[in-house]
């Protein structure tokens, strides 16, 4: 039996298992993961705890390298604490882009939220206009309907007409009966 060539095997396997190619979903998830990471760092740098911790770290650094044992000092006060300056500069150079990335992500979320709010407002406006038209249509149809008072007045007039007819019929019958009694 002939052995299947490599292209046949690749067609039989699921797409994700064919090769080292990264799908667009994986790329988006990776970018999102990095974005969440930068947001977490930016959020952390904006807390009072971080500022207090960084201040305590700098104070400890300065105190140790100023008053600590001479053989243990690793950053000289005489040349302006070069290592501390380098560390703080490095921290600032990474913090600024991370904060900007976090702001960009927040701007994107705000933009999406504004668009959703706009669509929701349009739907609410359309619903409100529809309901207003329905209320107007109901008012018009109700104004065409007979009210209780109108129906009562119509029934009273019908009763009066029936009473008049009845009394006219009774009178005519009485007159006819009286005329019959007077005949020989």
TrEMBL record:
Record keywords: Coiled coil, Membrane, Transmembrane, Transmembrane helix
Coiled-coil intervals: 104-131
Domain of life of the source: Bacteria
Database matches in InterPro entries: DUF1003
Basic and acidic residues composition bias: residue spans: 1-15
Segments for region (Disordered): 1-24
TM annotation in the entry: 40-64, 76-101
Keyword Coiled coil annotated: yes
Pfam families, sorted: DUF1003
Protein name: Uncharacterized membrane protein
Source organism per UniProt: Microterricola viridarii
Lineage of source species: Bacteria, Bacillati, Actinomycetota, Actinomycetes, Micrococcales
């Amino acid at each position: 039996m002939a052995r299947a060539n490599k292209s046949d095997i690749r067609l039989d396997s699921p797409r994700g298992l064919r090769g080292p190619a990264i799908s667009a979903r994986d790329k988006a998830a990776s970018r999102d993961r990095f974005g969440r990471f930068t947001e977490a760092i930016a959020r952390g740098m904006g807390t009072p705890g971080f500022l207090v911790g960084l201040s305590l770290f700098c104070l400890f650094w300065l105190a140790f390298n100023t008053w600590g044992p001479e053989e243990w000092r690793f950053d000289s006060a005489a040349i302006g604490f070069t290592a501390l300056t380098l560390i703080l500069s490095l921290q600032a150079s990474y913090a600024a882009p991370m904060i900007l990335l976090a702001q960009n992500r927040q701007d994107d979320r705000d933009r999406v939220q504004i668009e959703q709010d706009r669509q929701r407002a349009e739907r609410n406006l359309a619903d409100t206009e529809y309901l207003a038209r329905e209320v107007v249509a109901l008012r018009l149809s109700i104004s065409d309907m007979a009210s209780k008072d109108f129906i009562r007045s119509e029934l009273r007039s019908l009763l009066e007409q029936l009473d008049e007819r009845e009394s006219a019929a009774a009178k005519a019958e009485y007159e006819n009966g009286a005329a019959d009694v007077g005949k020989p």
